[in-house]
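Feature request, filed as a ticket because there's no other form

It would be nice if the structure record came with a short human-readable summary line next to the tokens. Right now we just get the raw output. Example of a typical job, pasted below so the devs can see what we mean:
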Amino acid sequence: QVQLVESGGGLVQPGGSLRLSCAASGSIFAIYAMGWYRQAPGKQRELVATITDGGINYADSVKGRFTISRDNAKNMVYLHMNSLKPEDTAVYHCNTRLATMLGYESDYWGQGTQVTVSS
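Raw output as currently delivered:
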């Protein structure tokens, strides 16, 4: 069993900052990628940022404002969000692609954390 638990969402004013955290736990053999996606009301889930051994990828809408980082020793991924805009309001989901101790490779998702940017 693998679990992803996010934290750090909340209400922030435009221009403010938040840091999201995600911890992966369970029967993990190796983590190949970690990332963040978001889903706003009435919209499809979209990629925010991903991080692998090969590099980092950001959505154009968050480049220069958001920073993704990873702590391999703790199986954690973070999303530092600066200069937040109302259009960043969404449920943010953590995602990871990993292999379990039994050798199964799959994607796993967290339950999501709400980020609301409003004055």
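Something like this underneath would help us a lot:
DSSP finds no helices and eleven strands in the chain.
The radius of gyration is 14 Å.
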